Amino acid sequence: MGRSLYFSNHRPNMLVIAAAMRRMSVCVESSLPAATGSKGQVIERMNNGIASGAKSGTRPSRQINVVLRSHEAGAAPAPIADHEPLPAIKPLPPGDHYADIQRELDVMVGLDNVKSLIYEIYAMLQVAHMRSEAGLNSGAHVYHMIFKGNPGTGKTTIARIVAKLLQKMGVLTKGHLIEVERADLVGEYIGHTAQKTRDLVRKASGGVLFVDEAYSLARGGEKDFGKEAIDTLVKAMEDMRTQFVLILAGYPAEIDYFLQTNPGLPSRFPIQIDFPDYSIDQLIQIAEMMAKDRDYVLQPQTVFKMRQHLIQEKQLSMFSFSNARYVRNMIEKSIRHQAVRLLSQYSNSVPGKQELMAIRPEDLRCESQSSAGKRDGMLG
To answer: Per its UniProt record, what Pfam families does this chain match (predicted)?
Structure first.
């Protein structure tokens, strides 16, 4: 079907009609680009009609029909965009920002839940960058964290990896780790604690402040200077929220109690990570990796002896067993005992390469951590 434009002048003026045709041709060109036939063809048909009327001496018609044909069969209509397309998302600077992080995590035994959460943080930061480049609100996030786990479960190592990740993704400017404990924060007189704590926060600016055994800050009661350290840290979290990340770490039960005694603290730490104890198989795997890194080899009989001792020690020291730290201490002691044995056996000669690498069962002298009544420096 066609559409017509009707002019009802009783006595049409040819100049007026010509001007109207020019206006209609502009309208046709601008508002109906997909119509079949060009502007020139429409004008030509209209001019021919006028000319024929003039030649015949008849009065020009009072009605001018402009016929706009429908699209030919099979022709696709021109698409009409509802809005302008979003600008292309600019990529991050060259390089895989997670590749180095992935390599460091891969060599760590266990900790599957921890590794998954670290990747979640990376994914959130990556998508936030994409949203920002697309003109969307990426939001402001808080990255202060709680690490809950027994000694030797990888908390400090993961803290270093987190610092590196946040630096690579542009959250932190430096990505260094400052590790402190109660003695580093608490002073000896009124006002000293706040100053010491502020100095450490400034030192951690652009990186991560890692407070180990953080619950010890609340053990002294209301008059203890530890409370002043907590208050100073909380204020720094508000005043310097984008300049550093605070990680509080410690035993699960003690950390939970610590958070309960300070109702305003849990909401300030949106990321809380549980570090489970290692299984016996995982501890053996860690021991073999530690020995390999030092160019030593645990003999099969040595591995069997270590496994039996670890089973017994975990049962006797359920709440104080220091996991990978305990294993590391065992390896280092075994290396010292091996050195003494080799000097004794080869007083007049040099042992071969394989003998220099072998850790034998007699080199592994097991002493129960619980029976010794002390941690023997294996906590952390």
So the answer is: AAA, AAA_lid_6
State how beta strands 5-6 and 63-64 pair.
antiparallel
Strand partners, 245: 208
Sign, CA torsion 225/228/233/239: negative
pLDDT on residue 24: 55
Q: Which listed CATH number (3.30.70.20, 3.30.1360.10, 3.40.50.410, 3.40.50.300) goes with 99-275?
A: 3.40.50.300
The per-residue pLDDT for 71 is: 45
Q: Is the pLDDT of residue 285 over 60?
A: yes
As a residue count, the chain comes to 380
The DSSP element (H or E) to which 200 belongs, if any, is helix 192-203
First to last CA, the chain: 85
DSSP single-letter state for residue 92: P
Please indicate whether residue 51 or residue 208 has the higher confidence score (pLDDT): 208
Instruction: Say how far apart CA 185 and CA 204 lie, in whole Å.
Output: 13
pLDDT, mean over the chain: 79
Q: What is the pTM of this model?
A: 0.69
Residue 331 has pLDDT above 50, yes or no: yes
- What is the CATH number assigned to the segment(s) 280-368? 1.10.8.60
